[in-house]
Design goal:
This protein is an alpha+beta fold and 320 residues long. It is built from 7 helices and 16 strands. The chain has one domain: q2cbj1_9rhob like domain (Jelly Rolls, Sandwich), CATH 2.60.120. Strands 1, 2, 3, 4, 5, 8, 11, 13, 15 and 16 form a 10-stranded mixed beta sheet that branches. A 4-stranded antiparallel beta sheet has the order 6-12-9-10, with helices on one face.
Length: 320
């Protein structure tokens, strides 16, 4: 079954038509037992400290990895979509109101347009619809690290664009971002502007990629869309971090800085104490070619766009 699904993602053009990929190991190369030996022999000495930080702490910081002109083109593209709309680009937004003294939230999804921008929101999968977004992901220094971590053929399979902080609770991506194999994934948080303290900046438990996973009531580690989140989920991570003495770190980058994190890094949005501050960012999940995202497990349609340099873009097809 997985070979057939991989074949669906493995071709050229938008939909893909090539043969099946070789099965991927459950763990990426940097989590394999021979990783230390490989780093000592195969990795340029100038890159070893960053890679060791990634393996030990679950993240690496790349300062100025994206050129300002690429980011400016992306920001202009995003602002235009908010102004005139785009039927291909969708936004998840939230209607919040107090009912009987309790805060309720309704999750909605609509094509991008000016009426939704003031709602709490995230723009979905811009990487398959915007050439400017793809050019950001192909920025040479950033792309070099993508290939070092994931191999010669890299797939960007999900992306989110944020205007403001989310205040999302601490979580591990593998619990909500479905992929097979689950750990063959990294994520990148690209700062589209200088991020201010109090804006709901990204924070994370350094070293939390080594914490035991959370098991949901159904017995697995992936929750799935539409399933209620157990009440002890966030507590699980706070307790595990406290037991191991893991400290919370915050990401306060300059425009063009990137945080790349391990699939297991536990992270979230810090409290917003400055409600006027934006936190414009572009977050993307990547895998090696051959991993299978959740949106095609059930045979759903997906977009596929190839880019130069061994970088491909896929996303669920919405509104069809």
């Amino acid at each position: 079954m997985l070979d057939k699904l991989r074949a669906k993602l493995g071709g050229s053009g938008e939909d893909g038509d090539a043969g099946a990929q070789d099965p991927l190991p459950e763990l990426p190369w940097y989590d394999q037992p021979d990783a230390d030996a490989r780093i000592g022999v195969e990795i340029d000495p100038a890159d070893r400290d960053a890679l060791e930080s990634f393996r030990s702490n679950g993240f690496m910081r790349l300062e100025g990895a994206i050129e300002p002109e690429r980011l400016d083109r992306l920001l202009a593209s995003i602002d235009k979509m908010w102004t005139v709309g785009d039927p291909e680009v969708w936004v998840e937004h939230y209607k919040r109101e107090v009912v009987d003294g309790k805060l309720t939230e309704e999750v909605l999804c609509d094509p991008v347009g000016p009426r939704w921008r003031d709602d709490p929101h995230k723009m979905l999968d811009l990487h398959v619809h915007s050439a400017a977004a793809r050019e950001v992901l192909a920025s040479p220094e950033f792309a070099r690290w993508l290939h070092l971590l994931l191999g010669p053929q890299v797939v960007a399979f999900q992306s989110l664009v944020f205007d403001r902080g989310t205040e999302q609770g601490m979580h591990r991506d593998t619990n909500f971002v479905g992929l097979r194999p689950a750990w063959q994934m990294i994520a990148a948080w690209i700062a589209l502007e200088d991020i201010q303290e109090g804006s709901g900046e990204l924070h994370y438990f350094s070293g939390s990629n080594h914490l035991p996973d959370y098991t949901f009531p159904h017995g697995g580690n992936y929750l799935g869309v539409g399933t209620p989140l157990p009440g002890d989920y966030c507590d699980h991570w706070h307790l595990g971090a406290a037991e191991r003495g893991l400290e919370v770190q915050r990401f306060l980058p300059k425009k063009g800085d990137v945080l790349i994190w391990h699939a297991g890094l536990v992270h979230g949005g810090s409290p917003i104490t400055n409600p006027d501050a934006t936190r414009r960012s572009f977050v993307t999940h990547f895998s090696p070619e051959g991993a299978v995202p959740a949106y095609i497990w059930g045979g759903g349609e997906c977009h596929r766009v190839r880019h130069d340099g061994g970088l491909s873009m896929t996303a669920v097809a919405r509104g069809r």
